Amino acid sequence: MIEVQHLTKRYGRVTAVDDVSFRVERGEILGFLGPNGAGKTTTMRILTGYIPASEGRATVAGYDVFDQPIEAKRRTGYLPETPPLYPDMTVREYLDFVARIKGVAAAERRTRVDAVIQRTHIDDMATRHCGKLSKGYRQRVGLAQAILHNPEVLILDEPTAGLDPKQIIETRDLIRGLGGDHTIVLSTHILPEVSQTCQRVVIINKGRVVAVDTPENLTARLQGAETLYVEVDAGGADVPTALTAVPGVTRVAAADTRPGSGAFEVESERGRDVRRELARDIVTRGWGLLELRPMRMSLEEVFLQVTTEEPAAEEAPRA
Ligand SMILES: Nc1ncnc2c1ncn2[C@@H]1O[C@H](COP(=O)(O)OP(=O)(O)OP(=O)(O)O)[C@@H](O)[C@H]1O
Ligand SMILES: [Mg+2]
Questions:
Q1: Average pLDDT, the chain
Q2: Rounded Cα–Cα distance for residues 5 and 193 (Å)
């Protein structure tokens, strides 16, 4: 439904987007995750036809955003970083105005406007002037205008920015509800957003895609080896030596610096589940097995790992 191929955007000497490629399938909700300045807004502006790319191409619903901009825009709803509201219009007047611009038939206009007002929970504000709305309501009116012409594709730039916790939950529910019928790309630098709303995540850093996967796979994949947290009461016996001998175990390290705590991190070969063997070994030795659980990397740790630069060996200057 959305296809982005080798997209690059340069502003003078700044490369804001650097050879970005990804696809979004019909009905999918894709999270576009990255720190400030990563290139999220720039990519979205290109996808919605607001700015041209320096290189590469993008299609939305089968239409090239550069060559067939009108067809592509007709199928796209866009919530920009700052929703484009007219301060002197009431919310209802503004939405009616947007409906006209977007070519919603006169007979349907009233129904459509009512429908999006309900869906985005802005009924209370329908007669308020846009210029007098709070940040959270401006954001919701922005979302209302994006879905007004019922577009197949929604491009939402930080849809929950500036919302209070209750509004965040409502907006996430709304977006999840829109998935399936709509294909959605939403940008965020907030992690719970992607794990709770998105089926797939593109992590972007300094204009480059650094990872693409489901939230679950990202946490699992980047973890590398499988790690278990094991706590035993071994009465002072040498636990690391014993557990390292269990088939499949590659490394055992103290999980707690206090001496004699009995807590260990046990790493095993990738994809190998050694929990049964470990438990059997511990119990057979007559030790007490107090705890045994997988240690998963949180998406937060994954995000930090892929967006925090480490001195990469291959980039080091050759001697
Ligand atoms: N009009 C412009 N002229 C020059 N540089 C720009 C322009 N717009 C964006 N940039 C630069 O491009 C880079 C990417 O910016 P972009 O707004 O796409 O990031 P972002 O991921 O949306 O960040 P944020 O999370 O802060 O919204 C930044 O280095 C930014 O300074
Ligand atoms: Mg941005």
A1: 88
A2: 25
